[in-house]
């Protein structure tokens, strides 16, 4: 187990284990893999356990055995567990500091964001618990011909698969909901940001009956399919890329296991000619785009501005980007850290290179206090691409990095068509001072969530179901609906007067 009193430093690499059947344990083959700091790729941060297919089987069996007792609890009883977890997650200041520093060093994001993710996870536990009374109420239909009670039951063992980019917030969009619904869980964090999420999951699991929450880490190529195809898995909730989402759906088809898939996005923001464009608006655009170095599924990824306001938006947003300090996320003055890994960085830089080669104007903004660090780490400055052709990859594909193409439009109808001209449909935003016009446009956008005069994680309300149209996925997380996905409907009907 990790000694929480030690500092997170190169001399003290952290080591995280699996959590199965109420116990922290090494992988059965005793294997681990190393994680490095994306700001300083040569710097070792620690080792995570590298699970085997046998470990997956043990985790699923433990969850299966714990299921009947957990499912038999009332919603109020499960809500009490969830509220206790929410309190406990932030109770120990030294431990929160330890986990957020570790998170920062293994992931690259700035410290403020790691703290935001930690508190958001607790908030989402509390929110799920608050639905206890509503969940306990069955729907009733009076006859004739029959009286019907529509009840719901938990599905069983749920596999929760989490990506590296916003692992704690995303965990908060599926784990509390799965538990509240009465499921037991096996969670698989992503390889590239496994340790802080795993330590956080261990804390949560310790507060639950053994087997209710199990955690496996390691390479998806070794354990992914064993988890997804396991015959005792009754539901899969996956967040990640489109190709892996499709693969999981194919694997799940073997057992007809239902899936929720939250995949990528290529969110459009539409700035109308009547938008209020003050400093606050430019700051919200900046955060909506560049938070977590743009590695956010719901980030603003295509900015469409009415031609009459185009120069104003370019000037305002460029000015904000120029002030940002790029560097080590652990330093107070840093506004934006590195991209999480070399592969992601090369995807981003190749899109920028293509835009340059095809004649688009590219501006890399921001201040770099430590050029040596910048040269070695996986960094990309906040990058704005002015009026790129709509056919460029940086417009058509998800960048998942700190790059934003800015285009113009003439009419509302053109703006709506441009926003919807994408394989993705996760989020979108409309910026206007006319609320009726903004809402009317929002209703025509093919997206699971539309923000008004804002965009991205800081503008999101966790009570609204979240997920996407088209390639952005299937199903919804968060909100009341996010709990219902973890349950099966069960109708009970009888002669009039029997049930109601
Ligand atoms: P992926 O490569 O798809 O990985 C996501 C998770 O799936 C990781 O835990 C990964 O484990 C696991 N995985 C990979 N192959 C698997 C398999 N065969 N069976 C079971 N699990 C498997 O995505 P990523 O690179 O981590 O994240 C970036 C992508 O996720 C972006 O496209 C982004 O848009 C999307 N994303 C979407 C959302 C929403 S809400 N729609 C939110 C965040 C991210 P390993 O790490 O071991 O490979």
As residue ranges, the low-confidence spans are: 1-6
Q: What is the assigned CATH homologous superfamily of the largest domain?
A: Aldehyde Dehydrogenase, Chain A, domain 1
Number of domains as seen in the coordinates:
2
Care to count the β-strands? 23
Radius of gyration: 23 Å
How much is the average pLDDT? 96
Bound molecules: 7-thionicotinamide-adenine-dinucleotide phosphate
Number of helices: 18
The neighbouring-strand order within the major sheet is 15-16-17-14-13-19-20
Q: Which CATH C-level class of the largest domain is it? A: Alpha Beta
Helix content: 25-40%
Which structural category do the helix and sheet elements fall into? Answer: alpha/beta
Describe this structure in words.
- By secondary structure, this protein is α/β, with parallel strands linked by helices.
- The protein has 2 domains: 14-263 and 477-489, Aldehyde Dehydrogenase, Chain A, domain 1 (3-Layer(aba) Sandwich); 267-461, Aldehyde Dehydrogenase, Chain A, domain 2.
- It has 18 helices and 23 strands.
- It is globular.
- Residues 1-6 have low confidence and may be disordered.
- Bound molecules: 7-thionicotinamide-adenine-dinucleotide phosphate.
- 7-thionicotinamide-adenine-dinucleotide phosphate binds at residues 161-166, 170, 188, 190-192, 219-220, 224-225, 227-228, 239-241, 244, 247-248, 262-265, 297, 398, 400, 426, 472-473.
Topology overview:
Elements (H helix, E strand, L loop, with lengths): L13 E3 L1 E3 L2 E3 L6 E6 L2 E10 L3 H20 L2 H15 L3 H15 L3 H19 L2 H4 L3 E3 L5 E8 L2 E5 L5 H5 L3 H7 L2 E5 L6 H12 L6 E3 L4 H9 L4 E7 L2 H12 L5 E4 L4 E5 L7 H12 L9 E7 L3 H14 L18 H16 L3 E4 L6 H6 L6 E4 L6 H4 L6 E7 L2 H9 L3 E2 L1 E5 L3 H8 L6 E4 L16 E2 L2 E2 L4 H6 L2 E8 L6
7-thionicotinamide-adenine-dinucleotide phosphate binds next to helix 9 and helix 10.
């Amino acid at each position: 187990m990790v000694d929480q009193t030690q500092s997170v430093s190169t001399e003290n690499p952290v080591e995280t284990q699996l959590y199965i059947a109420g116990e922290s344990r090494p992988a059965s083959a005793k294997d681990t893999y190393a994680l490095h700091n994306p700001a300083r790729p040569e710097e070792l941060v620690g080792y995570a356990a590298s699970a085997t297919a046998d470990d997956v089987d043990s985790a699923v069996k433990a969850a299966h055995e714990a299921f009947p007792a957990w499912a038999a609890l009332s919603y109020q009883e499960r809500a009490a567990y969830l509220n206790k977890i929410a309190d406990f997650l932030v109770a120990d200041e030294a431990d929160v500091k330890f986990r957020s520093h570790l998170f920062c060093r293994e992931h690259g994001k700035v410290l403020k964001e790691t703290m935001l993710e930690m508190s958001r996870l607790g908030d989402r536990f509390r929110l799920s618990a608050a639905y206890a009374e509503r969940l306990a109420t069955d729907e009733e239909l009076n006859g004739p011909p029959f009286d019907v009670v529509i009840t719901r039951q938990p599905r069983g063992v749920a596999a929760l698969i989490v990506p590296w980019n916003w692992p704690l917030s995303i965990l908060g969009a599926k784990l509390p909901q799965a538990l509240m619904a009465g499921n037991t869980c096996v969670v698989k964090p992503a390889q590239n940001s496994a340790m802080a999420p795993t330590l956080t999951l261990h804390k949560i699991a310790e507060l639950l009956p053994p087997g209710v929450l199990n955690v496996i880490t390691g390479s998806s190529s070794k354990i992914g399919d064993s988890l997804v195809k396991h015959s005792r898995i009754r539901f899969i909730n996956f967040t990640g890329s489109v190709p892996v989402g499709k693969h999981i759906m194919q694997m799940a088809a073997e057992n007809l296991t239902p899936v929720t898939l939250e995949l990528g996005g290529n969110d459009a923001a539409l700035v109308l000619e009547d938008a209020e464009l003050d400093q606050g608006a430019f700051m919200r655009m900046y955060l909506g785009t560049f938070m977590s170095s743009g590695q956010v599924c719901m980030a603003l990824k295509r900015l469409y501005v009415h031609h009459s306001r185009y120069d104003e938006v370019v000037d305002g947003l460029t000015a904000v980007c120029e002030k940002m300090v790029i560097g080590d996320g652990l330093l107070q003055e840093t506004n934006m850290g590195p991209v999480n890994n070399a592969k992601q960085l090369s995807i981003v830089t190749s899109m920028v290179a293509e835009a340059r080669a095809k004649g688009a104007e590219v501006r890399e903004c921001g201040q770099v206090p430590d050029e040596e660090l910048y040269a070695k780490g996986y960094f990309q400055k906040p990058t704005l691409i002015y009026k790129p052709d709509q056919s460029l990859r940086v417009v058509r594909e998800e960048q998942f990095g700190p790059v934003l193409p800015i285009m113009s439009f003439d009419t509302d109808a053109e703006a709506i068509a441009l926003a919807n001209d994408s394989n993705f449909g996760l989020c979108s935003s409309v910026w206007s001072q006319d609320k009726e016009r903004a809402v009317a446009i929002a209703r025509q956008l093919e997206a699971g969530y539309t923000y008004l005069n804002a965009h991205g994680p800081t503008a999101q309300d966790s009570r609204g179901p979240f997920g996407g149209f088209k390639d952005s996925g299937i199903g919804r997380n968060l909100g009341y609906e996010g709990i219902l996905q973890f349950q099966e409907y069960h109708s009970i009907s009888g002669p009039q007067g029997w049930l109601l």
